[in-house]
Specification:
The chain is mainly alpha-helical. It has one domain (8-63). 43% of the residues lie in helices and 7% in strands. It has helices spanning 8-15, 19-27, 50-57, 59-63; strands at 33-35, 45-46. The chain has a two-stranded antiparallel sheet with strand order 1-2. The longest helix is centred in the middle third of the chain and has 9 residues, at 19-27.
Length: 69
């Protein structure tokens, strides 16, 4: 079963990229968002294509397991 929306935590688990890199892509408008956060403590939901965006943007880091630097 394929999910139609992913949280930041799920993106971290799938890609192995640190949260601050996902936040950077979100803040610069590069990640497709399905639903914005409705307030503090509520997650932002990303479109599943965000995984491909993260992989292509951080291709060098992703190949070696998503190392921090």
């Amino acid at each position: 079963m394929k999910k139609n929306k992913l949280t930041r935590h799920e993106l971290i688990e799938i890609t192995g990229v640190p949260f601050h890199r996902i936040d950077y892509l979100r803040m610069t408008g590069k990640l497709p968002i399905v639903q914005k956060s409705s307030g503090q403590g509520r997650p932002t939901y990303f479109h599943p294509s965000a995984v491909d965006v993260i992989k292509s943007y951080y291709a060098d880091s992703y190949e070696d397991g998503g190392s921090d630097e």
